[in-house]
Amino acid sequence: MSSTLNADAALAERDGLPPDARRLAMISVAIGVGMASLDTAIANTALPAIAEQLNTTPAASVWIVNVYQLAMVATLLPFAALGEVVGYRRVCIFGIGLFTLASLACALAWSLPSLVVARLFQGIGGAAMMGVNTALLRAIYPSHLQGRGFGFNSLVVAVGFAVGPTMASLILATASWPWLFAINVPLGVVAVLLARRALPVTSRAAHKIDAMTAILNVFAFGLLILTFGDAAHQEGWHKLLPEVIATVIFFALLLRRQSGHAAPMLPVDLFKRPLFTLSALTAVCTFAAQGLAFVSLPFYFEVTLGRSPIETGFLMTPWAALVAVMAPIAGRLSDRYSPGALGGIGLALLSSGLVAMLMLPANPSALDIGWRMAWCGVGFGFFQAPNLKAIMGSAPKERAGGASGIVATARLIGQATGAALVAYCFTLSATRGTSYALVLAAAFAGVASVASFSRIVVGARQA
């Protein structure tokens, strides 16, 4: 027994994995994270088809999307904290396995309630994967190559989110909606087998998980996302106000409960570090900008320009394609240059690209749209990997789980904020809603750029 513990401890202290094991581990992580990111976006496009085949209303079918996002955000931080205690490897394998089984349940669903329940468990599995995947990258890659690892992870997340609508349109053009979920099953089986073989053993924290803190966290973040969703669907204040009050109460109870804990589940201790706080703020603002653009632009392409859903998917593709090109490059550069500078430059490019989208001619060609979307993709791809490295690098190694949870939470909260603001923009004007959303997106990207550049000053002071 003691020899096994000593072997695990030795593995945990090693600086990254050997190249062959590293490749297998990254394939496993990429499949899991890719499936979770893809399913965040893919169901939106399929909602009309699903609602029709299940004989339900469009309003009721929205729960197919909402319950997935709610489950992910509500359980991300508890799984990240659990990873620090039982090991990130165990939590990730559990997440991939649960996500795979839930995907099969989604494909076999016979009614809206059965699909919603399956999506709930799919979201929980996705949260387990996303909550620890960034911490695992820190263990998979040696310290001098971690920027490269974060770049590859950024590529997978961004492309999964961006190509979701296109992939959904292509699948629905040739098959029924259950295949949107069935394709995850063989991929998930491969990911579990690779994860069991290749994911590294990590050191474990001495503290224990407080179940009451986890429950309060679930209610606090669950209510937060529920409030965002209801605001996006223009619910009245008679419903929104109680949700806002309940959200504030549960966050207050959560902070009080975890006060004094050495490793709080909502890692407020890490926000005492200026570099960590600025990096998290950069992430929230950037993903809010992405959410604003990605939710509003399809309305412009389809309603204003009269493009089909498949054409719309391809018009969105240049953003994803350039993210795929730039993310690994930015990851490698972040091993040599300041993440604050790299992120600031990328986000300035993103903001200028969004302004260029506002200046489209009245009847734009595919080229007019394509180069602007590509410009946004260059900027977005240049931001992600350096920002991931900045967040993880500003947290102690033993708090990698909490930092990893914040990475995923910041992304999802930013996207939820962007979606809610799009709904508000369209309440202001049905015809100019997309323009208002793009103005806000450019502003969010500009704020994120300033926050990123300010890390250079903060870092110099700390040095």
Automatic annotation (TrEMBL):
Its main location: membrane. InterPro entries: MFS (IPR011701), MFS_dom (IPR020846), MFS_trans_sf (IPR036259). This is MFS transporter. Keywords: Membrane, Transmembrane, Transmembrane helix. It is a multi-pass membrane protein. It comes from Duganella aceris. The chain crosses the membrane at residues 24-47, 59-79, 91-110, 116-140, 152-173, 179-199, 211-231, 237-255, 275-301, 313-330, 342-363, 436-458. Residues 25-460 form the Major facilitator superfamily (MFS) profile domain. CDD domains: MFS_MMR_MDR_like (cd17321). PANTHER family: CONSERVED TWO-DOMAIN MEMBRANE PROTEIN-RELATED, MAJOR FACILITATOR SUPERFAMILY MULTIDRUG TRANSPORTER MFSC. Pfam families: MFS_1. It is found in: Membrane.
